[in-house]
Amino acid sequence: MSGYILKETFPSFQNNYTVNKDMQGTPAYFSDGGNDAFDSWGYFQITNAEVTVVTNLPFTQRNGPDGTIYTEEFQHDGETWELKQGWVVPGIFAMQVLQITGEDKPFKFKLSGNYGSDSSSQYGRVTTQYGEVYLTTFWNNDGGKDAAGGDPQVTWTVVPYDPGLTATDVPPATSSRSGDNETGTTVAMTHGCLVFIQWGYTTVQAVQDFIIQSFERDNIIKYLVVDGTEVKRWDEGLSHYISVGQAPPTKAMFLEHGMKTIPASRTGLIMTNPVLHCWTDDLSGRARFLIEKVVPKPKLLKMVTDYILPTGAKSVEVVANTAGSAILKLILSIDGGVTWKAWNSSQWLAVNTESLTEVESMGMTKETINGITETAWDAIISPGGTIRFGIFRSQTATADTCEVDSIRVNFK
């Protein structure tokens, strides 16, 4: 099932008020919010459907700058969940709660606490239809809906991950009130939800107009690797691939064990040609591509043909480009590739090409080979002789550049 998640970017929003970011405690709550918006309100938790398992949402990092979204994982009801939270724009705090392992387990989101409006509390809810989505927003202040004076108007809105729970005008949450005390609880949901909390001097309509532009439909994309006869996934705790069943992979395997991302490591894979499988519920027919960037192993490339030098060699010009941590070295052979040599600024030395370590340490840089004198060339190459080159390349990062554009031998 695909559902609703936060977008990467958010529209502008005019809150007409600067909030006091004072989240604290466990369960996390807003202490005052500024101008007596709260007298401790929030206490954010999720529970199982029967409310017998209760988990405090973690909020290890909190009260960050506007536009900063914090992400962390936590355990609830035997599975791993992910919380994204932060002030997406000035005046609006958003949360995204998603179950990321195992079969979907029904859960409820819960908030509670006390508003600063005390005995003057006025409150209600507004449900607005935006195409196929109904948004229900709860509001509270001490002067009536959208009042511009007094305590800031507080609003909260829950958007379930499941589109079916926003397809009708039945609210996905309820608010139980006793004066300025409130307990808000959602219906049982699956996979996750979004929560938007705002306080300031604007309208409920403006808040809902912002929210409807702040989330989008997610499509499930899961990956598994077939390694010979076994289906495998990456295990973060063990830092290697583990088997989850026998090939071929099934939908159930993808939903229970599928990976959201593909690790760079192949540790735990046995075959040299494992096959990556992808499953998605996206029926749009869009083509999907995987671009794999790898760092090549150090390698020595040897020419298989010779340059013939009828009058001997005067100089060699190498044009090459290296960047980052890349290493480029050159060696040469004057006997058809039987033996190899390198110049060390004073003499020619034999190089053992069976040892890449020796090639790397003894091989010539482009500056060295470009600086070899005619006299030094005469010491190993006679008129009518031959020459071929070996090129050693090493990179440690995909951003490294290691390229040879040309090798030119100038005759006498």
Number of strands: 28
Shape: elongated
Percentage of helical residues? under 10%
The largest sheet is: 7 strands, antiparallel
Within the CATH hierarchy, at the fold level, what is the topology of the largest domain? Answer: Beta-galactosidase, Chain A, domain 5
β-strand percent reads over 45%
Rounded mean pLDDT is: 93
Radius of gyration over all CA atoms, rounded: 33 Å
Q: Helix- and strand-based class?
A: mainly beta
Task: Give the tally of structural domains.
Answer: 3
Unreliable segments (pLDDT under 50, ≥5 consecutive)? none
How far is the N terminus from the C terminus?
74 Å
CATH architecture of the largest domain: Distorted Sandwich
Number of distinct helices:
5
CATH class of the largest domain: Mainly Beta
Structure explained in plain terms:
With 412 residues, the protein is mainly beta. The chain has three domains: 4-217, Beta-galactosidase, Chain A, domain 5 (Distorted Sandwich), CATH 2.70.98; 221-280, no CATH class; 299-411, no CATH class. The protein contains five helices and 28 strands. The protein has helices spanning 204-212, 251-257, 356-362, 366-370, 374-378, and strands at residues 4-6, 23-24, 29-30, 38-48, 54-56, 70-76, 79-89, 92-99, 107-115, 122-130, 133-141, 153-160, 173-178, 181-186, 192-200, 215-217, 221-227, 230-235, 240-246, 275-280, 299-302, 307-309, 313-323, 327-333, 340-343, 348-351, 385-394, 401-411. Strands 2, 3, 4, 5, 9, 13 and 14 form a seven-stranded antiparallel sheet that branches. A hairpin with a 4-residue loop joins strand 2 (23-24) and strand 3 (29-30). The radius of gyration is 33 Å and the shape is elongated.
